[in-house]
Amino acid sequence: MRGRWIRTAAAGLLGLSVCLLSACGRQTAAVIIAGSTSVQPYAEVLAEDYALLRPDKLIDIQGGGSSAGITAVESGAADLGMSSRKLKESEQGLWSVEIAKDGLAVIVNPASPVGDLTLDQICGIYAADIQNWSELGGPDAKIHIITREEGSGTRSAFEELVMGDRRITNKAIVQDSNGAMRQLVADDPHSIGFISLGLVNVGERPVKAIRIDGVAPTRENVLDGSYSLFRSFLFVARSRPEGPALQFIEFIFSPGGRLLLSGEGLIAE
Amino acid sequence: MKKFKEKLSGRVFFALALSSISALALITVFIIVNGVPLIAEVGVGNFIFGMSWAPSRGEFGIFPMIVGSVAVTLGAAAIGVPVGICCSIFLAEFAPAPLRNLFRPAIQLLAGIPSVVYGFWGLLFLVPFIRNYLGGPGLSLLAGAVILGIMILPTVISISEVSILALPRQYKEGALALGMTHWQTIRSVILPSARSGIVAAVILGIGRAIGETMAVIMVLGNAVAMPASILDPVRTLTTNIGIEMGYASGPHQQALFATGIVLFVIIMILNASAQYITRKR
Amino acid sequence: MRINPRTTGKIAKVLIWAAALSVLVVLVAIILYILFKGMPFINWRFLTDIPRSMGRSGGIAPAIAGTAMVSLVAIVIAVPFGIGTAFYLAEYTRGNAVTRIIRFSAESLAAIPSIVYGLFGFLFFVIYLDLGWSVLSGGLTLAFMILPTVIRTSEEAILTVPNTYREVSFSLGGTKWQTIRKAVFPSAIQGIANGVILSLGRCVAETAAVILTAGSALRMASSLFSPTRTMAVHFYYLAREGISMDNAYATAALLILLIFLINVVANAFVNRTMAKGR
Which of B123, C201, B37, B109 is nearest to A175 (CA)? Predict the structure, then answer.
C-alpha cells in the first residue's frame, strides 16, 4: 500500500506546483531599471523605501553593467538605465540625470602605518613599479595589490582617474565586488585596494581610507573639488521620463531620497 | 486500443529519450556558436597560447588560466586522490560496521554541501593560515588545491569503493587461502583488479575539480598571471567566466563563451577517457 | 632489505586508518563549526522576514522562496524527461547504437561543469528566449543540469527490478506498456524517488549556474518571470562581501540542515527498497 501513498504524494506535489505556477502570471513592474552594479545596491535601497510609500508601483531592478543598462534603455527593455560611467558620444541623445556622486577611496588595512600617498605613488603601486611597503615608509613586506575585474565600472573609473595610460599589473589579485575587496583588505595587513567611498565604513571589520596628496577622502572634499577621485552615478532614459518613472526620480531627489543616499555613503546634496 | 497504447507508449519514451540527448546538442551548439567567432577573429593560437588577458584593450589570451586550471587540478588530485583511495580501501576492507555506517552518510553529506560553503571555510581558515605561516597574500593556488582536494573526495571515494566491492569474493578468498596477509591481498589482488574503476574515479574527480567555480573564486585570488609558486594567486578557466560574466558585453562576453568552449573540450576529453576505461573492463 | 610482510601490512593499516579518520574529522569540523556559529541566529523571524539593507539585517524569506521556486521548476521539468529516458534505456533497447549514444550523452551531460550550464542558460533562456534573469530561466537551466542524475538513478532503479516480474506479467498476457506500468514502475518507484530527491539537493546547493540565470534580486519573486536569489547565492554574497557574518553563518547552517534532511529522506527510500528483501 506504500505505492498508493507515494502516488498520492506525487499527485499532490504536481497539483501544488501547477497551482503555484499558474498563480504567477506575468506581473508587470511599473518601472524597470537596469544597469551598473555599482549603482544597483543604492537603487535597491531606494526601491525598498519607495515600496513603503507607493506599494502599488513595483520597481524592478536588474544588474548587467552600465553598458547593458544603456542598451536596455535604448531598446526599450528598461525604463531607466543606471550608469556609473559618462555617456559616450554615441549616447549623447539620451536623457540623463546625476543622482549622486561617488568618491573612490584607496584603502589599506588599519594596521598599516601608511596613511598618505600621492597619486603617482598609487599609480606606481598598481603598475608594479613600487613593490614593497618599505619604499613608502611601511614595513619590509611585499605589497598585495588588489584590483577589480575587467569590465567593472569601478575599475574603469580607477584606471581613468589614477592610471592614465599605465596598466594595472597582471600580478594583482582580482576581486569581483566592492564588498569582496573590502573584506580582503580588512583581513590582510599588507594589502591595498580601492572601493566606493560610501562603503568604507560599511562592514563588520574596519579598513583605512588613505589621504591622497594630503587630502582626506570625505564628502566635503569631494564637493569642494579638492579630492579628485570621484565619479557620477547617472540615471538614463530614452527621453524625459513620465509617469511612474518620473515619480521615482522625484522621490530620489526628495529630501527623503537624498537622506537615504547620503545615509548609504553617497554624496547627494 | 491495447495495440495503440503499446505503440504510443514506445514512441513517447523514445521521444523523451531523444529530447534528453538533444539537451547535450543544444548546449554544445549554443556555446560554440557564441564563442567561435571570437576565437576565429583572434586566432586559435593567440587565444589559447596568448599571455595577456585585457578585454578592454582587445587582448584575449587565456594561457595563464589554462596553466592555472591544470596546476590547481593537479594539486587537488595530489591531495584528494591518495586520501580518497585510502578511504575507499578503509570502507571496503577495514571499517567496522558502525564506523562505516557513520562514514557513508557523512561522505554523502560532504558531496551535497554547496560548494560556496567550502569556499567560505577556506576563506575563514585556510587563507589566513597560509598568509600567516607560509607567506604571500593567502589567496593562492595552494588554498584552491586544498579546497578542491577535499571537494573531490566524495567522487573518488564512492566510485573506488563501488569498484572494489564489485570484485568477486573468490579473488580475495583465493589470495588469503594462498597464505597472503590481508594487506598483500589488497595490494596485489584487490587494487590491481579494481584498477579500471579506480582510474575512472580519479578522472571523474579531476573533472569535478576542473569544473568547480564558486569555491575557488573565493580562495584563488584570480590574478591573470603565470604563478611562480604555489603561494601565488592564479585564475582558472571557470573563475574567469564566473568573475567577469556579470559586467561583460560585446567581444568581452564572447571571449568568456570562448573560454567556456575550451573548458567544455577539456571536460569532454576527460569524460570520454573515463568512459573508455570503464568500458574496457 | 626485505621488510616483514606483516610489518608493511601494519604500517599500511595505520596509514589507511589515519587517512580515513582525518577525512572524517575535517568533515565533522567543517559542518559542526558552521552549525555552531549559525544555529543561534536561526529563528522564526530570520526565516520569515525580508532582508533589510541588502542582508545586513532582517531575514532570508525571499531567498527561501526563490530556492523553492527554482528547484520546483527544475524538478517538474526534468523528472518526466529523465524517467522517460530511463525507461527507454532500460526497457526498450538493449545495447544498440542508439542506447550507446543516449548513454554517452547522459554521461557527458553529467560531466559538464555547472558554470557551463550557467553560460548556456544565460545565452539560451535569458537572452535568446528573452526570459530575462528569472525563476523560469534558473529553473530550466537547473533542469538541464539534473537531467543526467535523474536518468542514471532511475535507470539503475529500473534495472534492479527482478526479471521474473516482467516474465510473470508477459505470461499473463500483459503488453509491454502494461508491464511497465503495473509491474516495473511500482517496484522501481522508490529508487526513482531517491534519485529525484538527490537531484533536489543538487538544485538547492547550486550557485554558479543560478547566479548567471536567475539573477540576484533581493525582492520576493512575484512570478515565474521575476528575478530571484536562491539561498546559496544569498550566502555567497553575504560571506564574500562581509555584509553580515552572523546572517552568513545562519544561512549556511540552514543550507547544511536542508541538505542533511534531503539525504535522510532519500536514504529512507533506498533502505525501504532494501528492506523489501531483494
Answer: B123
Answer yes or no: are the C-beta atoms of B173 and B240 closer than 8 Å.
Answer: no
Q: Is residue C229 a contact partner of residue C63, using CB atoms and an 8 Å limit?
A: yes
Name the nearest CA neighbour of A249 among A18, A57, A55, A20: A57
Third-level CATH fold of C44-274:
MetI-like fold (1.10.3720)
Is this complex's ipTM strictly greater than 0.85? yes
Per-residue pLDDT of chain B (281 residues; tens, 9 = 90+): 677 888 888 888 888 888 888 888 899 888 899 899 999 999 999 999 999 998 888 899 999 999 999 999 999 999 999 999 999 999 988 888 888 888 888 888 888 889 999 999 999 899 999 999 998 888 999 999 999 999 999 999 988 998 998 888 888 888 888 888 888 888 888 888 888 889 889 988 998 999 999 999 999 999 998 999 999 999 999 999 998 887 777 788 899 999 999 999 999 888 888 888 877 65
Give contacts of C144 with chain B, Cβ < 8 Å: 23, 27
Amino acid in the structure at residue A172: A
Set of chain B residues whose Cβ sits within 8 Å of the Cβ of C207: 114-116, 213-214
Contact by Cβ (8 Å): B67, B236? no
> Which string of DSSP letters, residue by residue, matches C152-221?
HHHHHHHHTS-HHHHHHHHHTT--HHHIIIIIIHHHHHHHHHHHHHHHHHHHHH--HHHHHHT----SPP
- Superfamily for B62-280? MetI-like (1.10.3720.10)
Q: Do B213 and C12 touch (CB under 8 A)?
A: no
Quote the CA–CA distance of A60 and A77 in Å, as a whole number. Answer: 12
Rounded-to-integer distance, Cα B108 and Cα B119, Å:
18
From the list A47, A48, A179, the residue facing C242 with the nearest CB is A179
Task: State how far the Cα of B184 lies from the Cα of B178, in Å rounded to an integer.
Answer: 11
DSSP alpha helices (H): ranges in chain C? Answer: 5-38, 44-48, 61-87, 97-111, 114-121, 135-159, 163-171, 176-178, 185-205, 208-213, 231-240, 245-275
CA end-to-end span of chain C: 51
Residue C51 main-chain phi, psi, to 5 deg: -70, 140
Can you state the angle between helices C114-121 and B237-244, rounded to 10 degrees?
40
What are the phi and psi torsion angles at A267 (to 5°)? -105, 100
Which of A190, A181, A176, A42 lies closest to A112 in space, CA to CA? A190
* CA–CA distance, C154 with A28 (Å, rounded to integer): 40
Ordered by start, the domain boundaries in chain C are 5-41, 44-274
A40, A150, A177, best to mutate vs chain B, most B CBs in 10 Å: A150
Interface membership of A153 toward B (CB under 8 Å):
yes
User: With contact defined as beta carbons under 8 Å apart, do B143 and B230 qualify?
Assistant: no
Strand stretches in A90-187, DSSP E:
95-108, 116-117, 144-148, 173-175
Nearest to C243 among A21, A58, A179 (CB): A179
Rounded to whole angstroms, the Cα distance separating A107 from A181 reads 9
Instruction: Identify which of C236, C210, C54 has the alpha carbon closest to the alpha carbon of residue C134.
Output: C210
DSSP H or E run through A231: strand A230-237
> How many interface pairs between A and C have CB atoms less than 8 angstroms apart?
72
CA Rg value for chain B = 23
Look up the pTM and report it. 0.86
- Distance from the Cα of residue C202 to its chain's centroid: 2
Q: Answer for the pair C267, C275: CB distance below 8 angstroms, yes or no.
A: no
∠B194-B198-B201 over CA atoms, to 5°?
145
What one-character DSSP code corresponds to residue A61? Answer: E
CA distance B196 to B229: 33
The Cα–Cα gap between A267 and A197 comes to 9
